[in-house]
Amino acid sequence: MIQGVSDLAAVCVGILGLLGAAATTGMPMWKVTAFIGENIIVMETRWEGLWMNCFRQANIRMQCKVYDSLLFLPPELQASRGLMCCSLALSGLGLCVAFAGMSGSSSSLTVASIEHPHGTELSQAKA
């Protein structure tokens, strides 16, 4: 019984990790640069992500542009893209393996044996 609960908890943590890695990969907020001019009206914020750049002036509107070519990206950005995509692929593969391992242990969760305090064993089927 404890094994099944720990398996389920591990899969839930794995799903949360996969969702977090996917959100982190897609967000344009990997590098944030802010510039404030002589007065507060001239304020610019620039976000650089793995897939796009975003630019915002004085909290008015945001413009985002997807990178045109992979060849013009710096090597550290190319490496970050590759590593994050590998992270997503491996965590998805790990979840598939975890689900396959859980389906084999589901038979132990359907019937639980409970020992009575007087020494008799009761078998209880769960729905």
UniProtKB/TrEMBL annotation:
GO cellular component annotations of the record: bicellular tight junction; plasma membrane
Keywords tagged on the record: Cell junction, Cell membrane, Membrane, Tight junction, Transmembrane, Transmembrane helix
Name of one Pfam family that matches: PMP22_Claudin
GO molecular function, a single term: structural molecule activity
Membrane topology (UniProt): Multi-pass membrane protein
Localization of this protein: Cell junction, Tight junction; Cell membrane
InterPro entries recorded: Claudin (IPR006187), Claudin_CS (IPR017974), PMP22/EMP/MP20/Claudin (IPR004031)
Superkingdom to which the source organism belongs: Eukaryota
PANTHER family assigned to the protein according to its UniProt record, in alphabetical order: CLAUDIN
Function: Claudins function as major constituents of the tight junction complexes that regulate the permeability of epithelia.
Protein family according to the UniProt entry: Belongs to the claudin family.
Annotated protein name in UniProt: Claudin
